[in-house]
Amino acid sequence: MSAPRSPSNNAERQAPLAGLKVLDLSRVLAGPWAGQLLADLGADVVKVERPGAGDDTRSWGPPFLTDVDGRPTSEAAYFQCANRNKRSLTVDMAHPDGAALIRRLAAQADVLLENFKVGGLQQYGLDWPSLQAINPRLVYCSITGFGQTGPYAPRAGYDFLIQGLGGLMSVTGRSDAEEGAGPQKVGVALTDVMTGLYATIAVQGALAERARSGLGQHIDLALLDVQVAALANQASSYLVSGRVPQRMGNAHPTIVPYQDFPTADGDMILAIGNDGQFSRLCAALGHPDWALDPRFATNPQRVANRGVLIPLMRQATVMKTTAEWVALLESQAVPCGPINRIDQVFADPQVQARGLQTSLPHPLAGTVPLVANPIRYSATPVVMHSAPPLLGQHTAEVLAHWLGVDDAACQHLRDQQVI
């Protein structure tokens, strides 16, 4: 077997998923997040939406984008976070001709994303068995709250519900010994985002397998499954020990000190991962003796005696401001940092240096500010080429490009209220 050809320069190399066609029938966050990632990697992602309404998140505001004259539009900020680089096609799948049109598109697609209730697409002939029959190469990714099987399969699933049911909230929030104790959800729809990431990985895995077998397959992805998998060390600690993890606020169950501490003007985070870091921290705090104290000298000892150590440290950390501590501790290679508000995040020099805030031209707002994709390829950089689309913005364009539908046929579909 000959070795793969090495391109002479990067200009010859395409985006990783260039040429891939993705039909995105999903709404809200988990599915659209996956669709956006696939689009960022070069796929042609067509977002299929309901005429006149579209994705639910289009109306999840305020805030809404403002137009070039400063007047509010109907485009919610929420929608902007998960629909970059896509084209919007409006089709009424409840109309027989609309369902038929989507089937024609699916016959041309490499990937289909959907997050309807289990069995919800069968009545339209858009379920996995129906589309597999017309396109055996199709990778069909179903995202639901609870999966295609099991007693909860018929239920609707939302991120907040899954954070509770899946155990995340049981280990998030102040401990029972503190004022304000109680389970707490994460401040973003983290289970949805993680499910979108798993979906993207699963799709790419299925595409790699298809390159060998020539056949697509069905991906059954559930928010609950993802949340349980993402319990990570908390789950493994329970499975190994039989002890149920408890809420500990910002403290870590097996590393000390690894939490927030008060300063003269706010709070900071210390994340001490080994005994050497702890020794340097103690010296910076003015208490080198703590590193020699048998109660604190090693991490297991610190975990056992956290109730003694943490109050002592809190008395020391309030003596300087957050900025002063961060400057001092960073100079001593002690992991630390501030607790930033989101405005401070985007003002941070490292965030700015990495280009994590970007903007794209928008037909109503002029430009729309967005968070950039964090993937950094050396040879095929992620290209953010188009803002989240207006509802139905690319309907005629997609039908012409994918199916060869001309203007007259497109107008007929509009007259019949199919698109």
Automatic annotation (TrEMBL):
Gene3D superfamilies associated with the record: Crotonobetainyl-coa:carnitine coa-transferase, domain 1, formyl-coa transferase, domain 3
InterPro entries: CoA-transferase_III_domain, CoA-Trfase_fam_III, CoA-Trfase_III_dom3_sf, CoA-Trfase_III_dom_1_sf
Keywords from the UniProt entry: Transferase
Protein name as it appears in the record: CaiB/BaiF CoA-transferase family protein
Organism: Ideonella margarita
